[in-house]
Amino acid sequence: MGAEASKNSASSGTASYASTIVDFPNLCRKESVATAWTLLHQCTLDKWKEGHADAGGFPESLLTCEGVIHKDCSFSFCMSRQGIININKGSSIFSFRKRSKFAKMAEHFEYNHIPAQMSSINHFRVKSVLCFHDSLVVLHLSRNTNSQFGLLDLRVNKFLGVFGKQHLEFANEALAGELSPDKSKCIVRMPSVTQQGMAAAAAPVPSTASVFHLYDLRTKLLVTEIDLNFPLCHFCFDPRFTWRRIAVTNFESGHNNSLSVVELDAWNVLSTNPRVSDTRQTLYPFLKDLCYTRDGSLLIATILDVNCFCREKKTRNYRPINCSIYVFNGDSTETLHCIQYRRYTCTQHNCPVNYKPVFSVCGSRMAVVMDTTDDAVQHYVQVYKLPTTVNLQNMCRVAILQNYPLSRLTDLPLPTRLINYLHFKPDFD
What we know:
The protein is an alpha+beta fold and 429 residues long. 14% of the residues lie in helices and 31% in strands. It has seven helices and 20 strands. The chain has helices spanning 3-9, 45-55, 101-112, 116-121, 198-201, 392-403, 416-422, and strands at 39-44, 125-133, 136-143, 146-153, 158-163, 176-179, 185-191, 210-216, 221-227, 235-237, 245-249, 259-263, 268-273, 287-292, 298-304, 321-329, 335-343, 358-359, 365-372, 375-385. The strands form five sheets. The chain has a four-stranded antiparallel sheet. Strands 2-3-4-5 form a four-stranded antiparallel sheet. A hairpin with a 5-residue loop joins strand 18 and strand 19 (365-372). It starts with a helix and ends in a 7-residue tail after the last helix. The model is unreliable at 1-29 and 87-98 (pLDDT under 50).
């Protein structure tokens, strides 16, 4: 069911979920009796920021960003959300008037976190944030026209070393990385480098094939690698496992519209959906994001039009793009649902925050920001109910997280393993 269709169908009932903070203005069915994919709630973006996000159990109230991709923000880091560092915009040291926010963020890491010997003597330069998980950050570093990666723990403010030295300097757009749930491994997708293809590999959008490198963050050594069949792919770790399972697009040869679940031990394919998008022949350049839900039971793929209407923003020709969120089973990759809506944004230039869905703390709700066709100024947030795993343990987790804030979970009379389960942390061996 699309977002607009869902909007029309939710015209009666009671408030979507109870809250002592906000009295929701629109009428939706009670969540306890609602089926999966029911539109639970709709409000304006302003109301969302004023308190509806907190009342619905969503940690993210910021769903729009004016940042420019690869100038202010990247696919892994949004300056507006400041998910890694808190740069004071009012400070004269970090004034954003002369240089971009992204450049200021790189300077922050170089001056405050990279050892002086590395930055001043060895000439290490921070190019971007490759990926991060909790307080652990992987930086894309450059030295003497060679790319490599730096590991930083912001919790203890300690630089943990470098790994993955390459033979040339990659553009930020050509790299993608993910940290494993147990933070012991890092997988990096990069262009495949050969003597004939070094120039092509250094391009922002590689025309050659790509390669996966899996690094051990304790030893800083390459564990395994595998050549990919296509230059572009999205991938993410399954949060239910340590580092041994990922979901990746276009992994199998001959399938350029596919989604696979892969075991990293031997790169074995556990399951494959050969047709992710039922309206397009290929996934790229339309696929913009791939992620698991908090409990790992679902895979969410965000597919958007690639039309750019940035020049028409202030004219009558400014039009929204079509957005589709495809939902798959996290184990079998079977297609379960699709939500379609429209959004005034640009996938070529705008920050990905503008179209990425967000999930509630309890993991049972998903929110997207959408627009109506005739209004580019007023944005709306829609909250959908996600299907949840039907077992007593998971149902209790959802109920607890809907009634207790995360800061109070440690006060519950529960053993450490159950507290970790409430935080969606598997019992890592």
